[in-house]
Amino acid sequence: MSASTLKICAGLVAVFAAQAALAVPVQYQFTTGTAAEPYQFAGLPPGTAFVDPVLAPLTGLSVTGTFFYDNAVPVSSVNPLTPNPNFSTAPGSSNYANAISNFAGTIGAYSFSDPTGSAQVGNDEFVPAQLPPGLPPLQPSPPYDFVQIGTYINFGGEVPDAAGFTIGDYRLIGARIFWIEDYAPQSTPDFLTSDDLLATLPDLGGRLALDFVTGTPADLSTFKVAYYFVDDVRVRPVPEPTSLSLLAIGALALGGAWRFRRAATPRT
Questions:
Q1: Residue 83, preceding bond cis, omega within 30 degrees?
Q2: What pLDDT score was predicted for residue 130?
Q3: Do the Cβ atoms of 51 and 228 come closer than 8 Å?
Q4: For position 129, what pLDDT does the model report?
Q5: b or e along 202-218 (b: 16 or more beta carbons within 10 Å of the residue's beta carbon)?
Q6: Per-residue pLDDT tens over the stretch 204-226
Q7: Which are the contacts of 140, defined by CB distance < 8 A and separation ≥ 6?
Q8: Assign residue 186 a region: left if phi > 0, alpha if psi is -120 to 50, beta otherwise?
Q9: pLDDT tens digits, one per residue of 87-117
Q10: Residue 244 pLDDT > 60, yes or no?
Q11: Interior CA angle at 178 toward 175 and 181, to 5°?
Q12: Which residue has the higher pLDDT, 123 or 8?
């Protein structure tokens, strides 16, 4: 390779490195598999899992969408160290408000979006849910790595800013993508070393959750929550138009250098 070609390549590498350093927030796209993952509903015997019948119209559909991820936002809060024994929690994990924005997706004929979102990171801090009193306890398990991104979930009376959809009496209030070590799916490896916000999101299969409610929190006799889980989630950065243009310019430059060198080579 000629000296001029090497200079062009080095210049392109430097430009792309600068672009990567300044590309905050970065747009990602995601897609899922089509198989609905059943969940363990509190109060049922161990091993009993199901998909809520109301959400059956979603079965067999893939979820696709995009969002923006800002890896430069500071920690906004840290979760309490005492977990709720009835829910899967990540005590001590760090929350990053506004790390996610413009989260939007579709599933079949349904669509949803939310301009604001957050991220949660817990290194060896995810604790699986325990069954309610009176049922056999689950086997002890160590804390796991845990990363979750998605829209805000408003159970405290805030006015939700998500644009969702309804199925029967259930309305969508949030969407989440998460990765849990050895848990969802079970092949996920140990992938965290701290609670710091990741520079790039995991290149691992994750799980997507669509969160539905019916009724209002003010009336617990009518308020119910339902989740729809789908595995095989993959997230990928969307190439910046500027980067694509630079790639095209680089290819043309390399082609021109090659043609110039070939034309300058004496023919025998």
A1: no
A2: 57
A3: yes
A4: 65
A5: bebbbbbbbbbbbeeee
A6: 999 999 999 888 877 878 888 88
A7: none
A8: alpha
A9: 557 888 999 989 999 999 999 999 999 998 9
A10: no
A11: 160
A12: 123
* φ, ψ dihedrals at 32, nearest 5°: -120, 175
The Cα 149–Cα 126 span in angstroms is 15
Q: Which two tokens stand for residue 143?
A: 């804390």
Report whether 209 contacts 148 (CB < 8 A): no
* 9 pLDDT higher than 50: no
In sequence order, the 6+-apart residues with CB closer than 8 A to the CB of 98 are 70, 73, 76, 116, 117, 118
Q: Which is higher by pLDDT, 112 or 14?
A: 112
Identify whether the C-beta of residue 121 lies closer than 8 Å to the C-beta of residue 146. Answer: yes
Q: Give me the long-range contacts of 224-228 (CB less than 8 A, separation at least 24).
A: 224/170, 226/52, 226/54, 226/55, 226/170, 227/39, 227/52, 228/36, 228/51, 228/52, 228/55, 228/58
pLDDT at 43 over 80: no
Phi-psi region of 197 (alpha: psi -120 to 50; beta: other; left: phi over 0): beta
The residue assigned the tokens 């916000």 is 197
Interstrand relation of 26-31 and 166-167 (parallel, antiparallel or unpaired): unpaired
The number of helix segments (H) and strand segments (E) in the chain equals: 2, 13
Q: Residue 35: what residue type?
A: A
What pairs with residue 235 in β-bridges? 30
C-alpha closest to that of 26 among 64, 68, 66: 68
Q: Mapping DSSP to helix (H, G, I), strand (E, B) and coil, where does residue 2 land?
A: coil
Q: What does R_g of the chain's alpha carbons equal in angstroms? A: 23
Report H helices in the chain: 3-22, 241-264
Residue written as token pair 């949660």:
120
